[in-house]
Design goal:
heterodimer; A: Protein Transport Mog1p, Chain A; 4 helices; 39% strand; B: mainly alpha; 3 domains; 3-stranded mixed β-sheet; two-stranded antiparallel sheet; 3% strand; globular; disordered N terminus
Chain lengths: 189, 618
């Protein structure tokens, strides 16, 4: 199924679910559907490599900025052989505890639990980490950031739904993420 | 007049004939869409179409070369579409004064291509476009740019008291608005702080007023010298007023201490509620998300923790410290930072760059400490030969973190090594810039005059990624020991790199507001052409038109000018293609390094924590 621009506008107006990677007709449109978060802006991938090379497909939405940290909701499908995370276990391991085994700045990691994303089982976890802003400053401000992850396994590859927001605005915007989470439909079994 | 000229160059319906066969149907359609998008008669100006144009045209030297025969203003079409895309990125990503200053660069600087499309230069000209294409940013952008309607009551009242009215206000440019509001806020803050709490108890809308003032205290750059202190004082004032309000209603039967604690808590709750109400009124930043503005923490004093021990490093000792940290002997890097880099993938690459002789000599090390711009860890100056300077505040910051005097570092082996560990990622970052600049100067000598002017965001992405990869490798080899001396900022970058490769670094650094407009220009010849100035671009278009009409009509001087311009253009596109390819190669390499590090992770993944997939949860 392809999602052309005209179709996209109509879908937006009706708040109907969108194909993952909407607006980019092609293979990625077949991986999932979501209802995009209202009032958030879809932004381009932050990679110099093509989706096809990375084998990572999906969308990023940015929302309110607080203390130089931009809220973000992303929905990604990691196809088999993708360049970033070979398995969902590896993704969870790298994100649910300090990647180097040492908690350098008192980040808080919640337990990995069973949960759901739309109509699928998921492993869910949350964490509180810190960003240092502005970038490259001598003495940057340490800013608390909340993140929630839902990792959805599939027979081929896996999905990740992720919410990132500066702590002051995290609660107020969580409902936008919840709506995306609830609307998620994986198209790869 | 300027606009008419541009328009006449853009409206090209009858310019498809002879050479069009050089373009495929798909290419012609893309170009026509791009032309239509910036045609002022059609008034499309879609950022999404612009994105397709930029993706389709940038770095395509062959296509642009063929296109410029059929469409003499193909470059201009790319410029305008690039401007629309740049504007979308800025409006979609930033808020408050970050957005304001980004728009100063986009709309109020030289070569404002958006302005020629009718979007700018004044903020009010931006809003119809935002409302049409980025409606979710309508409120945020109006607030950030301090339109009259988006100002709060107290701000409007203060301005009106000085004779300012809506139309005159909306004529002001962004920086003027910020400067004016900042000055008013400072004055109002001092006035408010001098009023008795008793009188403030009766002031309606006090919380909203104070929150407006607090925002404006930070909106201008430079900020008032004691802006943070004033904000703190205002917060304290609000809390004191709320406590005083509660004292009139104290219940009986509690001890004095209990009463005090209860009153303080009640005052905080009332204050939070009042701030929430103020935010909902719609003129506070982030009210969009019900954000309750809190007091921004003032920057930590660099010297506060060591005031009794502080002794500055004299300039001659600072020079000696720099040499012991890093220098070049017989063409080889030496010193503690060189030792620190040794044996890491990123560090060895950088060392090899300096240790391998180059005919240009552009890779020579010129390293020193210097008090650079505020908030810069370091800088690579693109002078005749690149120079790397580390902000000497880094040395003082290291001393503060370890609660020692800066002079103590010089006599301590431990802290000399510790300082090297602290500084090394910054050196890797800046050295990566020197390597980028060296390679471009050597490959594209014709662009030499612009050297360093167009440090696109991709350069920063590579530099931050190299710093992160370096730190990641150090962390992996012994995080517990390394973090004692490491720069926490780079440790966080290293974590992001291990979690997601280059992508999280690229996404994050894009919002660094210290970068100039040029950093946000997409990887393209556009950057070079901007440098070459719009005037030359137009002049070249006229010369090409004249040549196409009658090749013999050009004077020798005009022929030379045109040839020079075309050669420049050719190199510009080649450089754009090179930078794009380099970004791809860099990202592949950095992902491969990360893979190797993950493979080296001895712990591995022992058992699956993920349930088997199923369509429906129980």
């Amino acid at each position: 199924m392809r999602t052309g621009p005209c179709c996209f506008m109509l879908l937006c107006l009706c708040s109907a679910p969108l194909m993952g990677g909407e607006g980019k007709a092609g293979a990625e449109a077949k991986y999932f559907t979501i209802t995009p978060p209202e009032g958030w802006t879809r932004v381009a991938d932050a990679s110099a490599l093509s989706d096809g090379e990375r084998k990572v497909f999906g969308d990023d939405y940015t929302g309110p900025v607080s203390r130089d940290v931009q809220s973000r909701i992303s929905v990604k499908y990691y196809a088999p052989g993708n360049l970033l995370h070979k398995t969902p276990e590896r993704f969870i391991k790298l994100h649910s505890r300090p990647p180097f085994g040492v908690n350098t700045d008192k980040k808080v990691y919640g337990p990995v639990k069973n949960g759901t994303a739309g109509n699928r089982h998921a492993k869910v976890f949350e964490r509180k980490v810190y960003e240092y802003v502005p970038a490259g400053a001598v003495n940057p401000e340490k800013v608390l950031v909340y993140e929630h992850f839902a990792v959805v396994p599939a027979k081929q590859g896996f999905y990740v739904l992720r919410y990132t927001a500066q702590a002051d605005v995290a609660k107020a915007n969580y409902k936008a993420y919840e709506a995306v989470l609830a609307s998620f439909r994986a198209l790869v079994k | 007049m300027k606009l008419n000229l541009i328009l006449s160059l853009l409206l090209l319906p009858a310019m498809l004939p002879a050479q069009q066969q050089a373009l495929s149907e798909q290419e012609s359609r893309l170009l026509q869409d791009c032309i239509d998008n910036v045609d002022l008669d059609k008034k499309l100006l879609s950022p999404d179409t612009a994105e397709k144009c930029v993706d389709g045209l940038e770095g395509r030297e062959d296509l642009m070369s063929r296109a410029s025969s059929a469409y003499p203003k193909a470059t201009a079409i790319l410029l305008y579409n690039n401007a629309l895309l740049g504007l979308k990125k800025v409006v979609a990503r930033y808020s408050e004064s970050d957005l304001g200053y980004a728009l100063v660069r986009e709309l109020e600087g030289r070569d404002c291509y958006s302005c020629l499309l009718g979007i700018g230069p004044r903020p009010e000209k931006l809003f119809p476009w935002v409302d049409r294409y980025l409606p979710e940013r309508s409120v945020t952008s109006r607030r950030a740019l301090r339109t009259w309607d988006a100002l709060g009551d107290s701000r409007r009242s203060s301005l009106q008291a000085e004779g300012m009215q809506q139309d005159a206000w909306n004529e002001q440019d962004i920086k003027t608005r910020y400067a004016k509001l900042s000055a008013l806020a400072e004055k109002d803050a001092r006035q408010l702080l001098s009023v008795s709490k008793k009188n403030l108890l009766k002031t309606p809308g006090l919380v909203a007023m104070v929150e407006e003032i607090k925002q404006d205290l930070l909106v201008n750059k430079p900020r008032p010298p004691d802006a943070y202190k004033l904000r703190g004082d205002l917060d304290k004032l609000l809390l004191d007023v709320e406590v005083a309000r509660g004292e009139a209603q104290k219940p009986a039967g509690q001890s004095a201490a209990e009463n005090k604690a209860r009153q303080l808590q009640a005052a905080k709750e009332r204050l939070a509620a009042a701030r929430g109400d103020a935010a909902k009124k719609g003129f506070l930043d982030s009210a969009f998300d019900n954000y309750v503005p809190g007091a921004a923490a003032p920057p930590v004093s660099l010297l506060g923790a060591i005031s009794g021990k502080y002794r500055a490093i004299p300039p001659e000792d600072m020079k000696q410290l720099s040499e012991r940290m890093l220098s070049s002997k017989d063409g080889k890097l030496t010193g503690l930072i060189a030792d620190e880099m040794a044996g890491t993938r990123a560090g060895d690459e950088i060392t090899a760059f300096y240790n391998t002789p180059r005919a240009s000599g552009q890779n020579e090390l010129n390293f020193a400490f210097e008090e650079t711009k505020e908030n810069f860890n370091g800088v690579c100056y693109y002078r005749e030969k690149p120079e790397i300077r580390i902000n000497e505040k880094m040395v003082y910051d290291y001393a503060r973190r370890h609660n020692i005097s800066p002079t103590d570092i010089l006599s301590s082996k431990e802290h000399m090594s510790g300082l090297a560990a602290y500084l090394a990622p910054t050196f890797v970052h800046e050295a990566t810039h020197q390597r980028q600049e060296t390679l471009e100067r050597e490959k594209f000598p014709g662009l030499r005059r612009d050297a360093g002017q167009f440090r696109s965001i991709e350069r920063e992405t590579e530099s931050f990624s190299m710093g992160a990869a370096f730190t990641a490798e150090k962390m992996q080899r012994g995080a517990a020991k390394y973090v004692k001396y490491a720069n926490p900022y780079y440790v966080r970058d290293a974590e992001l790199y291990m979690e997601g490769g280059v992508e999280p670094l690229r996404a994050r650094k894009h919002t660094f507001d210290s970068y100039s407009k040029a950093h946000h220009v997409d990887e393209s010849a556009t950057a070079r052409l901007l440098a070459y100035s719009a005037m030359n671009e137009r002049k070249a278009a006229e010369l090409k038109k004249k040549r196409d009409a009658d090749p013999d009509s050009l004077t020798p001087q005009e022929k030379a000018d045109l040839a020079r311009y075309l050669e420049y253009q050719k190199q510009a596109y080649a450089a754009a293609a090179y930078r794009r390819q380099k970004s791809i190669a860099d990202e592949r390499k950095l992902i491969a390094w990360r893979d190797e590090m993950l493979a080296e992770d001895s712990e591995g993944v022992k058992s699956s924590v993920v349930p088997p997939p199923s369509a429906t949860p129980n």
